[in-house]
Structure formats: structure tokens, C-alpha cells
Design a protein that fits this description.
Length: about 190
């Protein structure tokens, strides 16, 4: 196992959850992460898929989207474009700062606070709901790389590998997986 990367430290800005299948999640004082399930009390918690579109295709698929994380820096990027987005608005459970979540490889472990650890499984693929929330937002969270590849900026998904409580102000420490690193794809 790799040690914690000393240059990759950040903080939890906000935490959120929703018992129902709503696009946005309510801000909370803390959330509890449960190993193999996700956020206690959240509609997307479970060992198998909980996102309605994925359940319709195959409800027995493993839930690789137990926890949704977004970097606060995305909100800062969107503000000048006319989108005033706050933590929880885009359905994330954890809003972070100081870490380039989108640049992490598959299998990266994020220690949130003292006990909880989320292993990154991939990128969130923004869907039509994002435009229903704010018209034009989908285009704002998508970009193109120099080679034409689509860049998705709407956060990362992960699974809980160590449980615990997570609160705003908690430290986030990054532990990279062994080489070779695999770039994040959509999950």
C-alpha cells in the first residue's frame, strides 16, 4: 500500500444526504458512512445499485456509486458563468476543497476525518436532470480536452471501505493505488 500522499490533502466543506430519490440532497451536520453500503439513511445506500435508471437495467449490479463527492472548486468555476451552486445542490454527499478529485486514478482511497475511507470507483456522468435543475448546467459541467475527449466535471463516485462519521471541517487525505494508475471512467 502506498503511504498517504503528503501533497494531496484537503478538507470536507459540507456533507449531505437524502432519504428520497431527489436530485439535490439536504445539508447535514454529519453523515455516517457504512462499509459496503454508503451513507446511512441515503436513498443511494446499498450493496447493489440504487440509481433508478441502473436498477431498471439490472438491479443485481454492484453499487459502485455509494458516495458522490464534488470539489467545491467546481462551484467557484461555475459562478462566473451564472450558476450559483451550493453544496448538496448537485446531489453530492461530500463536498471537498483542496483536492483535484477528477485527476485521481481509480482505486484512490480518501480518508475523510479520522475513520471513514471511500475508494474512488469512477466519474459521475451528468444526465438530463442537471439541466432540469438549472437550464444550461449540463454544458457547463462538460468540457473537451485538447484531443477532443469529453471531460466530465460533476464529481466522482466511490464505495465505503471503512466506516465512520464525516463532518464539515474534517481533513481529507489521499492514498494513491499502486502503479500503474488507471484514469477514471464513468460508473
Amino acid at each position: 500500500m502506498n503511504p498517504v500522499e503528503p501533497h494531496a490533502r484537503g478538507a470536507v466543506v459540507a456533507v449531505a444526504q437524502s432519504r428520497g430519490h431527489h436530485f439535490s440532497k439536504r445539508i447535514a451536520l454529519s453523515i455516517r458512512l457504512i462499509v459496503g453500503l454508503g451513507v446511512d439513511g441515503d436513498a443511494h445506500a446499498g450493496a447493489t445499485v440504487k440509481h433508478r435508471s441502473r436498477v431498471a437495467r439490472d438491479p443485481s449490479q454492484p453499487n459502485l456509486r455509494q458516495v458522490h463527492l464534488i470539489q467545491r472548486e467546481l462551484f467557484d468555476e461555475l459562478r462566473p458563468r451564472g450558476f450559483n451552486i451550493a453544496p448538496g445542490d448537485l446531489g453530492e454527499n461530500v463536498t471537498t476543497s483542496g483536492i483535484d478529485l477528477l485527476g485521481l486514478p481509480v482505486g484512490t482511497q480518501l480518508r475523510l476525518g479520522t475513520d471513514a475511507v471511500v475508494e474512488i470507483t469512477g466519474l459521475r456522468n451528468p444526465c438530463v436532470q442537471i439541466d432540469r435543475f438549472r437550464p444550461g448546467l449540463m454544458a457547463a459541467v462538460l468540457d473537451r480536452a485538447a484531443d477532443g475527449a469529453l471531460i466530465r466535471k460533476s464529481g466522482v463516485m466511490g464505495v465505503v471501505i471503512a466506516g465512520g462519521d464525516v463532518r464539515p471541517g474534517d481533513a481529507v487525505a489521499v492514498k494513491l493505488p499502486a502503479l500503474p494508475h488507471v484514469a477514471l471512467g464513468v460508473v
